[in-house]
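Hello, quick one for you while I still have it in my head. I'm working through a protein record and want to make sense of it properly. Would you mind checking whether the tokens look sensible for this chain? I owe you a coffee for this, so here goes:
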Amino acid sequence: MRLCGMMFGALLLVGGGMPALLFMQFVMYGSPPPASDKIPGNYHLTSWTTDNGLPQNSVNKIIQTRDGYIWLATNDGLVRFDGVKFTVFNSQNFPLLKTSRIQDIIESREGSLWIGTEGGGVVVKRKNGQNTAYTTAQGLAGDLAGNFCEDSKGRIWICTDKGLNYFKGGRLY
């Protein structure tokens, strides 16, 4: 999670009869949130579901990018949340996505959004609009990309169903 001024955002997936996405927003005064399971009275809790614009209620990963957007990886597309509305990117409106089943997302230190899919490889959504897809045809070990990590040298590590790759300096290894 990133701090935005004095506001701190957290999204949680909770269990129960049907999973729901919860957004908690509270004012931070230089201390981390309490470790307690109880929500103090100064927290505001709102539930977001398909009724509010999510493509589905299951979420595989949640991140907040430096520009303040909250991104959600779902089995029905990549979702950007601006605090008011959800924008869905899927295989029908974002052509580089060969599937809408999104497994993982990270923001690299250079600001690109790395999107791991189930069966469609990896899509890199760059700030400059020069988006790229990597599949087994480009040397990716497997087309199910389930986990990403960026190391201290700026390499993006990609864990697939068939092996491990890393990306550095414009090349996939």
The mean pLDDT is 81. Residues 115 and 161 are 15 Å apart (CA to CA). The first strand starts at residue 3 and ends at 4.
